[in-house]
Structure formats: structure tokens, C-alpha cells
Specification:
Pfam family, one: PseudoU_synth_2
CATH class of the largest domain: Alpha Beta
Distance between the termini: 51 Å
InterPro entries: PsdUridine_synth_cat_dom_sf, PsdUridine_synth_RluA-like_CS, PsdUridine_synth_RluC/D, PsdUridine_synth_RsuA/RluA, RluA_PseudoU_synthase
Keywords: Isomerase, RNA-binding
Number of strands: 18
Function: Responsible for synthesis of pseudouridine from uracil.
Radius of gyration: 22 Å
Oligomer: single chain
CATH architecture of the largest domain: 2-Layer Sandwich
Protein name: Pseudouridine synthase
Length: about 290
């Protein structure tokens, strides 16, 4: 089994400790690297301490310590649709009727438990950390880090998340919704727009309008990540998602919320390259659009 190695080329002279802090290597991570047998920090192939003076074009390699699964974790042997994978993270196309993380209902399988099995099968000696969750019946792209440190890097950076949805009514060509979201007092699950809620921002664009069914095909971008954010914001604007029974959506054409994460775009936390991953629409959404062409 191979550990995850973060590799950097030094651009200017500085102390190794300063470089590590600038690249979000926390003191906690440094402690684990120091005391775990399989972690290390090397400069030009040689282990050095944090007081070492780095020079331009030095190569710094940080070997992250391995991670171990809890004894209570489940491993579920099922296929997953991996759209992108490298040494640091993977992006999968999640199907419907699948929670992103385990729930209290043990009858429910989860994407995380399926990825657990994939890691075990591939002898990846870390554990998966879900970065971008989707609701159980929302399909599409989910970003999963291969180490807690990589997860921490993602938490400090911008990830552009784009969705496609089918909603009732004809929406505006473009609109930004800024409306706070709070939990409905009488429900554990349901959310609503209301005073005292958390700040939430969504933008949408009209992609197509199906006249005879009064259905808009919309592209959306999340600027924040509140629970049920798109579903709540579109209901708030009187454009409920098709199939979204919880928020008053029309269930005559589709049996789940017609929402799919189609695109994730961000700067790679290690290589600084642009990662731009897309996923095709699922058949249940495509069939509604095609049926009305």
C-alpha cells in the first residue's frame, strides 16, 4: 500500500516551517507526521526538520500518515461511477435513492460505505472523506477526498457547484436569490426561508422552457451549502422542483426531486491546475425533456 505524497517545487527561499504553514500543513498534521511511522517530510529526497532553509527549485515531498477505518464502519460491495480520480481525491456520479453518508436507518446503504469498499479493494491505506454532499434523491457529482488533510485543503478553497433542475413555471432568464434558511420548527428534516436562518445564496439561469407543460429547465449555482438550499430557494420563489413532494413539487412526471449536480469546477489543491468535471443528466430527467421536445 502506498501513502499519499504531496509534492511541491519551491519558488523562493524560505524556512520549511513557514512553507508548510502557507500550504495548510497544520501543527496537528505535523505532529502526526513526526510520530506516525509512515509519515515524513523530505527535501530533495532527504528528511529534514522544519527549521531547514529551502532554496528555489528545491523539491519538498510530504508523505501523509495512513488512516485506519473504525471497527464500526461498513463496506458495501457495489459498483460506483467514478468520473475522475487521482492520488488525492475522486469524483463520482451518485445515483438516486442513495444517501451520501450513513444514516440511522441501517437498511439504507450509503455512497460513503460503497467508497469504503472501493478503498479497501484497491488497498488505499487512507479513508474517504466526502467534501460535497448531495441529498438522498439528488443525483450527480460528489467530491471525495482521499485523506483528512486533503479534505481540510478543500474546506479552505472555492468549489464551483452547478446543477440542473426541472421546476414548475417559467422562471426569469437569470436571478440571484439571497434568503436565509432555517429549520421548520415542527420538523427535523424540512427547511424554510425565514428570519434568523443561515445566510444562503443561489443563482439560476433559464436554460429552456417547455411551454405545454409549464416546466423550466434551469441551471443553478450554489454559493453556500445549506441543507436543501436549492429546493427551499426555488419553492420560496414559487418555482418548486418537479418531484419534490416535501416542498410542494408536482410528482406526476418524476418520483424524486428533479435535481442533478452536473458540474464541479475548482483549482486542484496540490497541482494548482483547473479541474472541471461534468456529468450527463440521468434518464429520468432526460425523458421529461425529450418527451416534450
Amino acid at each position: 500500500m502506498t501513502n499519499i505524497v504531496l509534492k511541491y517545487t519551491i519558488k523562493e527561499e524560505q524556512i520549511l516551517r513557514e512553507f508548510l504553514l502557507e500550504n495548510s500543513i497544520s501543527r496537528k498534521t505535523l505532529t502526526r507526521i513526526k510520530f506516525d511511522s509512515d509519515g515524513s517530510i523530505k527535501v530533495n529526497g532527504k528528511e529534514e526538520n522544519v527549521r531547514y532553509l529551502l532554496k528555489k527549485n528545491d523539491i519538498v515531498e510530504i508523505t501523509l500518515p495512513s488512516e485506519n477505518f473504525s471497527e464500526f464502519v461498513r463496506f458495501i460491495d457495489k459498483d460506483i461511477n467514478i468520473i475522475y480520480e487521482d492520488a488525492y481525491f475522486l469524483i463520482v456520479n451518485k445515483e438516486i435513492n442513495l444517501p451520501s453518508i450513513p444514516s440511522r436507518n441501517l437498511e439504507d446503504e450509503s455512497l460513503l460505505e460503497i467508497v469504503n469498499y472501493y478503498f479497501k479493494k484497491k488497498n488505499i491505506n487512507t479513508i474517504p472523506h466526502i467534501v460535497t454532499r448531495l441529498d438522498k434523491n439528488t443525483s450527480g457529482l460528489v467530491l471525495i477526498a482521499k485523506h483528512r488533510h486533503v479534505h481540510a485543503l478543500f474546506s479552505n478553497m472555492e468549489i464551483d457547484k452547478f446543477y440542473t433542475a426541472l421546476v414548475s413555471g417559467k422562471v426569469k432568464d437569470n436571478e440571484i436569490i439571497e434568503a436565509p434558511i432555517r429549520r421548520v420548527t415542527s420538523s427535523i428534516i424540512e427547511r424554510e426561508v425565514g428570519e434568523g436562518g443561515e445566510f444562503a445564496k443561489t443563482e439560476y439561469w433559464l436554460d429552456d422552457y417547455i411551454v405545454d407543460k409549464d416546466i423550466s429547465v434551469v441551471k443553478l449555482k450554489l454559493y453556500t451549502g445549506r441543507t436543501h438550499q436549492i429546493r427551499v430557494h426555488m419553492k420560496y420563489k414559487d418555482y418548486p422542483l418537479l418531484g419534490d413532494e416535501l416542498y410542494g413539487g408536482d410528482v406526476s412526471n418524476i418520483s424524486r426531486q428533479a435535481l442533478h449536480c452536473t458540474n464541479l469546477k475548482f483549482i486542484h489543491p496540490i497541482t494548482d491546475e483547473v479541474v472541471n468535471v461534468r456529468a450527463d443528466l440521468p434518464e429520468d430527467i432526460i425523458s421529461i425533456i425529450k418527451h416534450n421536445e
